[in-house]
Amino acid sequence: MSAPRIHIVTLGVSDLARSRRFYEAWGWKASSASNDNIVFLKGGAGVLALYGRDALAEDALAEDLPTGFAAITLARNASSKDEVDAWFATALAAGARELKTPQEAFWGGYSGYLADPDGHLWEFAFNPYFVFDDHGNLALPD
Q: Where's the VOC domain (predicted)?
């Protein structure tokens, strides 16, 4: 049996074209597998997908209950504090809403939070205890 993996994270969005522009402004690259209904963005070993919020709820047979805070964040880990600051500035310029300016964290790192145009939370962080492999993937100890 293979190790558990997350292959795709799908975000339900209210305006697919706007969200695609937003994420492409950060440097994500849309796959040619994208179409008018879904966008697949390449991100290292995983994929971030953008799909209409109503369509996603319908596909999952779930009621769409906006919560304000969904108790989930997505994270991007940097190799330095300066990289966090640069990523943060790029996201803000693309239309993100700042929630927490990058700052020293109680756990010894440096991080900040922002929200994309649909309110999905992102943490940009530098963790001095994390190591990346040759492909830029997070290499956690066993």
A: 5-127
